[in-house]
Amino acid sequence: MKVWKCKKCGYVYNPEVGDHESGISKGTAFEDLPDTWVCPRCGAKKNMFVAMEI
């Protein structure tokens, strides 16, 4: 399974969990996040995230 990790603060976006604080439902792929979405922990943009296999 693929998750996405913020290079700035280490926050991990897991599509199986989503980001409820930002209104992102579980099951939302990282690629489907709006371009305006930012890291809920540090505010980094999507281009600051790297894919990781877990």
TrEMBL record:
It holds the Pfam family Rubredoxin. Binds 1 Fe(3+) ion per subunit. GO terms for molecular function: electron transfer activity; iron ion binding. It comes from the Archaea. Residues 1-52 form the Rubredoxin-like domain. Its cofactor is Fe(3+). One of its GO terms (biological process) is alkane catabolic process. Keywords: Electron transport, Iron, Metal-binding, Transport. Rubredoxin is a small nonheme, iron protein lacking acid-labile sulfide. Its single Fe, chelated to 4 Cys, functions as an electron acceptor and may also stabilize the conformation of the molecule. Belongs to the rubredoxin family. This is Rubredoxin. It comes from Methanolacinia petrolearia (strain DSM 11571 / OCM 486 / SEBR 4847).
